[in-house]
Design goal:
Elements lengths: L1 H10 L12 E5 L7 E4 H5 L5 E4 L10 E6 H5 L7 E6 L4 E5 H9 L3 E6 L17 E6 L15 E7 L2 H4 L14 H13 L29 H9 L1 H4 L17 H13 L14
Parallel strand pairs: 1-9
Antiparallel strand pairs: 1-2, 3-4, 4-7, 5-6, 5-9, 7-8
Helix pairs in contact: 6-9, 7-9
Length: about 280
């Protein structure tokens, strides 16, 4: 029997399970197709690694996490106009450099939180959020919009400004600089663009295009727009809805008015039409 067993082992190849590649964060400078790849171990080995306390924790991963400053992986070169933050579930956030500057003015900076495999991060719905999450550290971190806290982070890409990549997002030069739509443009790019396109411009696909086929201001009154931004589920809800409300600390009433004004300025003129009812 021993000889038979030996023959049997030699007759068939030994099949071993393929090793699962270790998750890594890809960091690419503006214009680079390939950049630096950081595994969990590589991030933890950086001299800037710290255990930080999250003053707010919208991703439910804290309050204390191991993390490295975003600046530690971006290198010492010139800061790009914007950062594109990609997640494994397809979510993409645009982080204009102006947001980094404004946040720094009130003592808040972005860090990359690193998951401990022994304590995996899960959302309240049980979704895997790791192994990397972009978080904001500082007492005033609650002023950062939830769209700029990125779980399941897999890539950081330096980019030109969104309006340079999608000119259709830019306001006409004839709009007076005193018009609140200019502030609305900046707010849209940082808070709305991660999920929504406008007239086909952008990469967001988690929510509807706010300009096509009809601009949102044609069916959302200013009051209705405020209500939707503050508490989407109080206005309309379905099982697949993902939009979270924006508290006043993130978007003031004046800010919401400015976004509404921006959308109105980019209205292409398409009117509401009575569609044929479904049978």
């Amino acid at each position: 029997m021993a000889c038979l067993a030996t023959l049997m082992v030699g007759a068939y190849p030994v099949v071993t399970a393929a090793a699962t590649p270790e998750p890594a964060l890809a960091v690419m400078a503006q214009g680079q197709a390939n950049g630096q790849s950081y595994t969990r171990a590589a991030l933890l080995a950086l001299a800037q690694r710290r255990t930080v306390t999250l003053a707010v924790d919208p991703e439910h991963i804290g309050p204390q996490v191991d993390a490295v400053p975003l600046a530690a992986v971006m290198g010492s070169g010139a800061m790009p106009d914007a950062l594109r933050l990609g997640a494994s579930d397809g979510f993409v956030a645009e982080l204009p450099v102006s947001t980094l500057t404004t946040a720094a003015d009130y003592g808040v900076r972005p860090w990359i939180a690193i998951e401990d495999p022994a304590r995996p991060w899960r959302s309240p719905q049980g979704e895997d959020l790791g192994p990397f999450v972009l978080v904001w550290v500082g007492a005033n971190a609650g002023r950062i919009g939830q769209e700029q806290w990125v779980d399941r982070l897999v890539s950081v890409q330096g980019e030109t400004a969104p309006v340079a990549r999608w000119p259709g997002l830019g306001l006409p030069a004839a709009v007076p600089r005193s018009d609140p739509a200019w502030r609305g443009q900046a707010l849209f790019l940082s808070n709305c663009m991660p999920c929504h396109r406008l007239n086909g411009n952008g990469m967001g696909d988690k929510g509807p295009d706010l300009g096509q086929p009809v601009n949102a201001v044609r069916y959302l009154t200013p009051a209705g727009f405020h209500a939707l931004v503050r508490n989407p589920r109080a206005v309309r809800h379905w099982d697949g809805a993902r939009m979270e409300g924006f508290p006043p600390a993130v978007l003031s009433d004046t800010d919401i008015d400015a976004i509404h004004a921006y959308l109105a300025r980019l209205d292409t003129g398409a009117t509401l039409r009575q569609g044929k009812p479904r049978e």
